[in-house]
């Protein structure tokens, strides 16, 4: 508790038509945390993760970044540091390389340049050649598209990754590739980075994470270490 | 200097009788649209007769505030119609379409009245102001509703792409850039298409009207050219306006896509 949390949700709630989707949820993420977020579907895991990335409205409570609420001027920078990765990668027109280059076109990354060599090394480590970069993105399999989405996030060196069931609906080999990319990203700066990994696979979560939070009907239930 | 044939009610009735063709087709093919045909015919006659009365009255009264008031009513109706045509709605939609119709059509009509027709005796000359605005409204309305529908539809359909960009740190301008571009392009294409074929495939109503009423075709053509560019400008301005204002409405200031607003 001595460390300033990278992100903290304080008592956040979300209701839709009298149904409580998030009910007074508080969660903190300090550097070095690898939280596994478990729970049955519909328990609010994804919604909590999307709320942390400021992609959902909340009815009450607040989300703090390094101890302060995120003003709308900082929202872009916040999201480029606290990066949310969708459960299913959206298809984009163009080649894999052009899709990997997308973040560099954004104002918040002005001045940064695409590191093709780094990407090629990452691809080689999971057994993909350079030719993968010139494939049309829309024709990738679900697993390949998810790998591209994760590399697109990780290459920007965010401090926090919010991963929404990144390996569900993938074959086991793609799942392993996803895991190793995340583990390499953490290993680069283990004391400075943190992540939340939403999963419905408790074994996987316990393997990768150093703490587990379980959600049930909009509430965080128990925490184990 | 009346160069045209004055039509009597009997002559108009002779033309109106053509509706019998539609009626026979409906009966023979069992289309069951006889009731609609009757209603549509009655509405055509009654609405146009009313417009005739209103126009006569406006010309007779000849006051700037009457012209402005009528123009305002026409604009409001256009704004509401544009909102009503949208398949997907969101709170504030009607205000956005009305503002867009208003800003685009009034600016450009004013430009034509003051700059192009600069030797008009009165700036609000109803004989020019009302028909010009009417034509602009009708066309800008199309661009606005097409642009709006395209924009909301592609936001909903491409939510994954839009939110991926936001999650990577995009501003709302960056995340919505492609849907906005697509919407403005789609909104502007009909008027560009009609500019392509005007005179070849279609003879515009206003120009033919002027020719029938005895205006020198060369002059009628000049009027039509003015109108085409007026309409094109207003459509472009209105479409950009409705798409941009909708973007501001549908994305929070922290760039979050407010999907929950779209119904």
Describe, in plain words, how this protein is organized in 3D:
The complex is a heterodimer of chains A (225) and B (263). Chain A has 225 residues and is an alpha/beta fold. Chain A has helices spanning 45-52, 75-81, 96-101, 116-125, 142-154, 172-188, 202-208, and strands at residues 7-16, 19-29, 34-38, 60-65, 68-69, 82-85, 160-164, 194-198, 211-216, 219-224. The mean pLDDT of chain A is 92. With 263 residues, chain B is an all-alpha fold. Chain B has eleven helices and no strands. The mean pLDDT of chain B is 94. The A-B interface holds A 53-57, 70, 72, 75-77, 79-80, 83-86, 88-92, 102-103, 105-109, 149, 152-153, 156 and B 158, 160-161, 163-171, 174, 252-258, 260.
Helix fraction of chain B, binned, reads over 70%
CATH class of chain A: Alpha Beta
The major sheet of chain A is characterized as:
6 strands, mixed
How many whole angstroms does the radius of gyration of chain B measure? 22 Å
**Overall morphology of chain A:** globular
| Helicity of chain A, as a percent range | 25-40%
Features:
A: alpha/beta, Rossmann fold, 6-stranded mixed sheet, 4-stranded antiparallel sheet, 7 helices, 27% strand, globular, B: 263 residues, mainly alpha, 76% helix, 0% strand
In short:
With 225 residues, chain A is of the alpha/beta class.
List the helices and strands and how they pair.
The complex is a heterodimer of chains A (225) and B (263).
Chain A: E1 7-16, E2 19-29, E3 34-38, H1 45-52, E4 60-65, E5 68-69, H2 75-81, E6 82-85, H3 96-101, H4 116-125, H5 142-154, E7 160-164, H6 172-188, E8 194-198, H7 202-208, E9 211-216, E10 219-224
Helix pairs in contact in A: 5-6
Chain B: H1 9-16, H2 19-28, H3 34-61, H4 64-85, H5 93-116, H6 126-157, H7 159-167, H8 172-175, H9 177-197, H10 205-212, H11 217-250
Helix pairs in contact in B: 4-5, 4-6, 5-6, 5-11, 6-9, 6-11, 9-11, 10-11
């Amino acid at each position: 508790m001595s460390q300033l949390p990278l992100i903290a949700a304080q008592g956040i709630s979300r209701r839709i038509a009298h149904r409580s989707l998030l009910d007074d949820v508080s969660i903190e993420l300090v550097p070095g945390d690898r939280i596994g977020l478990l729970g049955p579907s519909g328990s609010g895991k994804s919604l909590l993760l999307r709320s942390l990335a400021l992609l959902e409205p909340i009815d009450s409570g607040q989300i703090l970044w390094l101890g302060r609420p995120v003003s709308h001027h900082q929202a872009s920078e916040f999201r480029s540091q606290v990066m949310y990765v969708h459960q299913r990668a959206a298809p984009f027109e163009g080649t894999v390389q052009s899709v990997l280059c997308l973040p560099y076109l954004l104002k918040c990354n002005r001045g940064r340049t695409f590191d093709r060599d780094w990407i090629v090394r990452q691809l080689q480590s999971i057994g993909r050649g350079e030719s993968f970069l010139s494939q049309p993105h829309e024709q990738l399999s679900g697993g390949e598209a998810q790998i591209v989405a994760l590399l697109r996030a990780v290459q920007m060196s965010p401090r926090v990754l919010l991963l929404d069931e990144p390996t569900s609906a993938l074959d086991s080999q793609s799942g392993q590739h996803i895991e190793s990319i995340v583990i390499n990203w953490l290993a680069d700066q283990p004391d400075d980075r943190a992540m939340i990994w939403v999963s419905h696979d408790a074994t996987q979560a316990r393997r990768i994470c150093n703490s587990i939070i379980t959600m049930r009907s909009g509430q965080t239930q128990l925490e184990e270490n | 200097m009346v160069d045209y044939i004055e039509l009597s009610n009997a002559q108009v009735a002779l033309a109106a009788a053509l509706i019998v063709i539609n009626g026979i087709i409906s009966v023979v093919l069992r289309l069951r649209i006889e009731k609609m045909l009757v209603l549509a015919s009655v509405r055509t006659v009654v609405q146009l007769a009313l417009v005739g009365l209103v126009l006569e009255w406006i010309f007779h009264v000849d006051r700037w505030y009457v012209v402005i008031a009528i123009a305002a009513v026409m604009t409001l109706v256009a704004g509401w119609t544009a909102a009503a045509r949208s398949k997907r709605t969101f709170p504030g939609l009607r205000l956005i379409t009305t503002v867009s119709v208003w800003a685009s059509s009034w600016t450009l009509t004013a430009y034509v009245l003051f700059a192009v027709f600069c030797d008009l005796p009165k700036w609000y000359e109803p004989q020019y102001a009302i028909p010009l605005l009417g034509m602009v409204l009708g066309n800008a309305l199309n661009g606005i509703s097409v642009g709006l529908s395209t924009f909301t539809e592609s936001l909903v359909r491409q939510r994954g792409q839009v939110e991926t960009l936001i999650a990577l740190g995009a501003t709302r301008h960056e995340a919505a850039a492609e849907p906005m571009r697509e919407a403005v392009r789609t909104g502007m294409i009909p008027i560009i298409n009609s500019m392509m074929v005007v005179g070849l495939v279609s003879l515009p109503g206003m120009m033919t009207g002027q020719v029938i009423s005895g205006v020198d075709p060369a002059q009628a053509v000049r009027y039509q050219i003015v109108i085409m560019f007026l309409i094109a400008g207003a459509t472009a301005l209105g479409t950009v306006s409705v798409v941009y204002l909708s973007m501001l409405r549908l994305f929070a200031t922290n760039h979050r896509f407010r999907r929950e607003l779209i119904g």
